[in-house]
What we know:
385 residues; alpha/beta; 7-stranded parallel β-sheet
Amino acid sequence: MAAGKTRTPKSVSARKDDIQPFVLTGAGGFIGKRLLPALLRSGWTKGWVIVRPGAADQIRAGCESVAGVTLDWSGLTFLEGDTTRDDLGVRPSEADLIAEEAVHIFHFAGVSSLRTSTEDAQRLIIDATSRVLDFAGDCVRLKRFHYLSSVMVSGSFSGVFLESMLDEGQRFDLPLAEAKFLAEQEIHSRTELASNIYRPSTVIGDSRTGQTERMNGFYQLLRILWRLKNLPRDVTIPGPGGPAYFNIAPIDYVTAAIAAIATDTSAPPGVFQLTDPKPLTYFEMCNLILERLGGPKLAFGVPLTPLASLTRFKPLQGLVSRVSREVGIPLPSVNMMAADVVYDTKNTRAVLAGKGVECPPLESYIDTIIGWYGQMMMGEKIRND
């Protein structure tokens, strides 16, 4: 709520039903457009979806496209707003109604590009999260605040990063990662709010269909391996080496896990790291993909840490940037690839136990991912991010 304004809450009476009215920001995002149908399927049919001006129809169409069915929107109200403004950027009467009724707030809006500037990260992640938290504090029925973060909050940390960890003295090369870290700190400082923080790793396509509309670092690497598949099987090829792991999860698992955790109203608040609990190293993953493509295997690995160090050495940054563009992997991805970190998922797995939601191993669905990518390579256009 804006400084100097006050909102007088109405009396709170006990509900006779199990309706969980919710607010969702970021419904047009890669995860958000899949989470909204998942919430509807879970019986959470009443709520408010905060959208950019003129975006409601596009978001509804996007949700139905990924869900593969026509959805019942009758219980949802789409409101034009702006999370960088007070009270979600909606009209005062709308804000008052939400503050009286909302039981859950999902703040999933923001940016996800590794190229996000410091200024945009500050405004769209840190400042926006602070304003949404301010509004959450005015919601008299609120039971849980849900935030979409990222495992990138681990920064330069090396080792096993627990779900209970946050500030471990790590360094940040990306404004996006540091902004997520600072946003989490702000959430933890609001001790009056019960919060769920979701930290997905690199999210790739659907493990059942391979479909994705976002091309992240995994697909940049897949594109390089695709070019190698027709080389002779006995050719000697170096690849990414060292102990670095590629922490990855398919979008269907990430969405199902968030929906299952959020709708379990008996689960305690906490931090949930959404990734493969047994990730492959970069070297192992590249060889797995090359094997499935029928190409040559990588003969030996080149440690990534020295290369990542070069990206911070100013006299060589121009050269490294040119090589990065030529290869097709942006500099921020190089630094992330060099991080020797594995993310513990004990808390996540405990809450998901018995719900039939588990992160599948990459070996079980990589053929589907490759198959879909191959179809796109034949002519369809997909967005690079």
